[in-house]
Specification:
This protein has 9 helices and 11 strands. By secondary structure, the protein is of the alpha/beta class. The chain has a 6-stranded mixed sheet, with helices on both faces. Strands 1, 2, 3, 5 and 6 form a 5-stranded antiparallel sheet that branches. A hairpin with a 2-residue loop joins strand 1 and strand 2.
Amino acid sequence: MKVALRTEGLSKQWGSFKANSDLNIALPLGARHALIGPNGAGKTTFVNLLTGVFAPTSGTVFLGEENVTHLPQHQRVKRGMTRTFQINTLFPGLTVLESVVLAVCERKGIAGRWMSTVATQREAVEEAEDLLESLHLFKEADALTRNLPYGKQRLVEIALALATRPRILLLDEPGAGIPSAESAELLAVIAGLPADVTILLIEHDMDLVFRFAERIIVLVAGGVLIEGTPAEIAADGRVKEVYLGEAQHG
């Protein structure tokens, strides 16, 4: 089994507070995994360790066979690890197409001159248009991102992430704030992402998680409580107690 991303003994501690403790997690190539847990479980810290926002107190992060523990964020992106954010980070004054073209140009190393030469960057424009078409966003290509409904903004965020051509895609709460009527479209887009892209979904929307994930990792108090199939997670009494019960009664 080829592993796209794994951690060994990954831990983060501030003083006496242990945010993450001895995490040993492996995502096979092309995996569709989800990470869940109650508030304060350490999910965001874990993603920040994966992406290089935080340096671990101990442990290692491997992208494929490469130890990337001490690489900065932009170097991890260049190696194929891309993250979307719980609070979307779009370009409000640009159109959807301009935003994605900029992301494509950034990957190609020509972002510094993209505006003055956008007409000549036909390859970047065509790639961006194809990406928008695949995400059912082509009709919104000329709309300003700030004028889009929130659900569409989250789809644009995924388009920006895909423009980097990631090998690993970390979807950080893509369903946050999206009306239920729009979540089906979001799920369809996520489910239709390229099969060779390894995906870790960090999400509170349990319907989205159980419909998407092949395997689910449950994080509690900074450590892994259980990892298993959706059926195994749904049947586990500890999960119901610490997470599903909270979601139903919280």
